[in-house]
Amino acid sequence: MKSILAVLAFVVSSTVFADYTLIVPQEPGKGTSVWASIIAKHLSPYLGEPVIVRHIPGAREIPGFNEFHNKLRNDPKTIMVAHGGNGVSYILDPVDYDYRQYDSIGMMNLDIVFGRNKETDLDTGKFKVAGSSGYEPDGAAMAMLLCGPGKTVDQYIACFKERVVWVTGAKGNEKRLMFLRGEVNTTRESPSAWIKFFTGEKADPKNVIWFTHGIYDLQNKKQIPDPNFPGTQFEDVFKQRWGVAPSGDLYNAYRLTRNWRDVLQKSLWVNKGNPNTEKLRKALREMLSNPEVVKEIEAKTGKYPWIIGEDGNAVIAELYKLITEPALKTAVRWNKEAYGFPSVYKP
Prior knowledge:
alpha/beta; D-Maltodextrin-Binding Protein, domain 2; 14 helices
């Protein structure tokens, strides 16, 4: 009996005094890892306990989230840091994790800026993209903007392959360097990176924003233009070019992957029933009331709203409504045939 009590006491004390851990599904130095390190540093004083970052990288940044789901989520001091790529993988890849089994602590509602060299003609030019996973919505947006309205998925795939050169193998900042050297004529950037590298007096005027994807308006349950880049949302750019709003099967698949990626770009999750959930949400709200902390976060991400607590769970419920059978099948097909990404249809 004494032995059993000693073991129980050890388990309880280990849980009480263990540090909070943020699980990051990528190696140090990448965007979500840097964001997580900022969150860990500033969240700790508001929790009154240390917060550490643990990196679990792997292919398409899936293994870390799978390990959280399968082995770590029942630890009340373990928090999953997920990003938009995990959101897209959830609907297109064979993964173990499932957002319905977690509670949201908080998420940043971010955007992506897709730029181009404006000297390449939109009607006749070929567009080179240093592409990789995470670009799923961007390529679909390019196809619709270049090829016009009213096309079938077959026609968009054929047009995309004719008009777009998909260059693989480049990573991280190498993609931006390829754009700056003229090896590709498009670039995909975070909002803060676009402002840093492509605005200001030294910016090359031929490098312009082609489109952004907008941000999610939770109150009205729809995507709206990004206030940081007015007039650049894909829907607005499409209508300016073609005179009609985008529609059809590829557009529905684009909305599916865009929202699962961009609404969940930076998010914090714990297992449902975690006894520390409300404590973490309270600490996050208090942290974000500090203007100096917000300034440091926004220096990395740009100025974007947070969705905290139960509102994050409500966002997931809305995202599930986008998963219709036709949109999902089209997204899987587009991934396979346009990019050559291995994707699976999950009914």
